Amino acid sequence: MAQTDVLIVGAGPTGLALALWLTRQGVSARIIDKNNGPGEASRAMAVQARTLELYRQLDLAEAVVEAGYKTPAMNMWALGRHRARIPLGDAGRRVSAYPFVLIYPQDRHERLLVQQLQALAVDVEWRTELLSFEEGESHVTALLKQADGREEAVMATYLAGCDGARSRVRHQIGSGFEGGTYKQLFYVADVRVTGIEPAGEAHIAFDQSDFVLLLCYGEKDRYRLIGTVRDERAEHPEHLTFADVGHDAINGLNLKITEVYWFSTYRVHHRVTDHFRRGRAFLLGDAAHVHSPAGGQGMNTGILDANNLAWKLAAVVKGKAPDTLLDSYQIERQAFARKLVDTTDRLFTFVTAQGRFADFVRTRVAPLFASVAYKSGNVREYLFRAVSQTTLEYRHSPLSQGKAGEVHGGDRLPWLPGALADNYDSLAAIDWQVQVFGEAKADLTQWCAKHGIALHVFAWEHAYENTGVARNAAYLLRPDSYVALADPEGEACTLSRYFEEHGVLLPA
Question: Is pLDDT above 60 for 362?
């Protein structure tokens, strides 16, 4: 019987990213998908700053940025009039090395991830379906159906369900998927557009109960169009064409659509599963949570699921941590998923609500507020943090301890740019490390050297005073780069005690 450390079901961005992080850590992963190959339609569009930060561990960040398109601004239209232009180019310049909104269609994203896996000698097994699985004391036995109809049994230490909203893994482990479905029917289309001004930017237009979002790919005249289908036409989506959808908001943009490359309709769900882990099976991405596309969070959230789980699986598979470490995956990611569903639900409800008052707020109040508020650098930065997922933290996780300055255990480490390099350069290593801003104590230096844990000391700068980090404190970072322990005293014994309490073996 074939064996692997982790069997990954589903080769969308979540499954592919999980396979990459595991393979980079020396964990064998087998990834299957019942489809014929990577997606050919650009579903998710935005790659958020936090995803790019974590992609540095996979040597992917710069490739994605180069292949994607930095959206210069969002324009707001109402009732056929241009009401506001919101610059997006440097909203997060004090927050991240990636302070922009990057558009990189999911189909291209998937193909890049597949290529990266192939470079590591891992091929996606397309047209291969999970039929069932059984859990044993030390492994999972999965029954697969190959492209030629042949059935194969595979033994894996763990199983990762990245198989979408209709997840077979989720159904078999009996995990619920509480939530609901919005009544609105959405359409999405890839189109060629002329006449739009300013060209190359994003546009959102409201016209009474109709709205449309226009996103630029970075290719001349080519855009993604997203909107809602109203009235009785929404009852029979299988018969709809682009000509059938409402064009009031589209016409309000004063543009001309000269070609429709792709058109589809879909309904939006908001659900979170009961169990992100059950035994040796895990749920990630859409198999664990689905929500409205507001804010471009879906694909990024799945990739961060993969980042969170991969280092924990690697530690347990290699015998460096107890199986109980894996319980923190559900604790950390389920809490974030529920918060995200609530947040996107409120935004989605605002955009799609019907009635005179809702129309008045969208077409009159919101554009005025956006135009005034976005002139404030603090407001721009706040909104960037909210959308970019750089505010995501795990403070309530059992793995998070301490506080030094304004940084708590569980936080994303503040990004601190330097003259030659930033403090995120060292985070490319998928391993435990310590960062100190100022001077490290001698016993801490000796302890890190003894145990093979990288210690990075940054000379204190006046600019650090407003970033939240404390001078001479020690920040122990997990392999996924989140702060595990923030010790204001920078003591070696505090770090040593952390590893003992969590049962994580030190390298030496």
Answer: no
The answer to whether 499 touches 325, Cβ cutoff 8 Å, is no
C-alpha 461/C-alpha 420 separation (Å) is: 14
Architecture of the CATH domain 2-68+104-176+274-346: 3-Layer(bba) Sandwich (3.50)
Please check whether the domain covering 401-502 is classified as CATH 3.40.30.120.
yes
What whole-number distance in Å separates Cα of residue 40 and Cα of residue 42?
7
Angle at 349 (CA atoms; ends 343, 353), nearest 5 degrees:
165
- Asked if 261 and 242 count as a contact pair (C-beta separation under 8 A), the reply is no
Residue 324 has phi, psi (to 5 degrees) of: -65, -20
pLDDT in tens, 264-280: 888 877 889 999 999 99
pLDDT greater at residue 335 or residue 145:
145
Amino acid at 442: A
Write the pLDDT tens digit of every residue in 279-288.
Answer: 999 999 999 9
pLDDT bracket for residue 32 (50, 70, 90) = very high
What distance in Å separates the CA atoms of residue 367 and residue 285, rounded to the nearest whole number?
Answer: 33
For residues 176 and 505, what is the distance between their CA atoms, to the nearest angstrom?
35
Torsion-angle region of 321 (φ positive above 0: left; ψ -120 to 50: alpha; else: beta): beta
Q: Where do the structural domains in the chain lie, given as residue ranges?
A: 2-68+104-176+274-346, 70-102+180-270+355-381, 401-502
Alpha helices in 174-264 (DSSP H): 248-252
Q: pLDDT tier at 77 (50, 70, 90 boundaries)?
A: confident
Say whether pTM exceeds 0.85.
Answer: yes
All residues at 6 or more sequence positions from 244 whose CB lies less than 8 Å from its CB, including other chains:
229, 233
The CA angle 411-479-91, to the nearest 5 degrees, is: 45
* Beta strand extents in 361-449 (DSSP E only): 401-404, 407-408, 433-437
Common-topology check for domains 2-68+104-176+274-346 and 70-102+180-270+355-381: no
Q: What is the mean pLDDT of the chain?
A: 88
Residues in the chain: 508
**Backbone φ and ψ of 256, nearest 5°:** -130, 125
* Phi, psi dihedrals of residue 25, rounded to the nearest 5°: -100, 10
Q: What's the pLDDT score for residue 249?
A: 78
Q: Which fold has domain 70-102+180-270+355-381?
A: D-Amino Acid Oxidase; Chain A, domain 2 (3.30.9)
Please compute the mean of the pLDDT values over residues 296-319 and round it to a whole number. 93
Helix (H) or strand (E) holding 108: helix 106-119
Least reliable range by pLDDT among 92-106, 146-160, 469-483, 490-504: 92-106
Which uninterrupted H or E stretch holds 380? helix 377-388
The amino acid that residue 220 corresponds to is K
**Per-residue pLDDT reduced to its tens digit, 146-204:** 999 999 999 999 999 999 999 999 999 999 998 877 777 888 889 999 989 899 999 98
